[in-house]
Design goal:
With 70 residues, the protein is α+β, with helices and mostly antiparallel strands. The chain has helices at residues 3-11, 29-32, 49-59; strands at 17-20, 40-43.
């Protein structure tokens, strides 16, 4: 998810939408810091162009930070 980036963006006042292909572990840094309560979390496959396009349009996303890895 890029929890530290999310945390910094939230601290700077950004409206953040986080995507993840899988449900995250509630023991992770992201959940321990309560970031899930400060952002919108969407479960989506960013490799699917149409799903990603729909997400960007619905949430009026201006910037994308791609941190997914294989």
């Amino acid at each position: 998810i890029g929890s530290h980036l999310v945390e910094e963006l939230v601290q700077q006042g950004a409206i953040v939408t986080v995507t993840s292909l899988f449900q995250q572990d509630n023991r992770s840094y992201f959940y321990q810091k309560g970031l899930d309560k400060k952002v919108t979390v969407v479960q989506v496959d960013v490799a699917n162009f149409y799903s990603l396009f729909d997400l960007v349009a619905r949430h009026e996303i201006e910037f994308i930070f791609h941190l997914a890895a294989q």
